[in-house]
Specification:
Layout (H helix, E strand, L loop, with lengths): L1 H23 L4 E2 H10 L1 H7 L16 E7 L6 E2 L1 E7 L3 E9 L5 E10 L1
Antiparallel strand pairs: 1-3, 2-4, 4-5, 5-6
């Protein structure tokens, strides 16, 4: 009887540990953090050649605005990924922002529209 109880407890603890580890793999960022990170990623944005970067200064053009909307289910106001748009006076770039571990993120260009 004691062996069965010990085996059951070990199995229950192992499953609880696996369940907790599975829920921690999804990283989430707030809307504000996603928008701020996009505005700080000028090196990646320059590689796309979408017209968001001033060629002289290698910085974002003046009055560039990032607007993000969370995708999926929010957990305490944080999302795992976002649909974002970077606006300048002449260009709108739509991107997909995915939160990664330790505050990191990945972005993928979806479309570029010239005004």
């Amino acid at each position: 009887m004691a062996r069965n109880t010990i085996a059951f407890l070990v199995a229950a603890l192992a499953l609880a540990g696996l369940a907790q580890a599975a829920t921690q793999t999804v990283q989430r960022h707030s809307k504000q953090q996603a928008e701020s990170n996009l505005l700080l990623s000028s090196k990646q944005l320059a590689r796309w050649g979408a017209g968001l970067i001033d060629p002289k200064t290698k910085l974002l053009r003046d009055n560039t605005i990032a607007v993000c909307k969370g995708r999926g289910q929010a957990v305490r106001g944080r999302y795992a990924d976002f649909d974002c748009a970077l606006h300048t006076r002449t260009v709108v770039v739509s991107v997909r922002y995915v939160a990664q571990r330790d505050g990191a993120f990945t972005i993928r260009k979806l479309s570029v529209q010239r005004r």
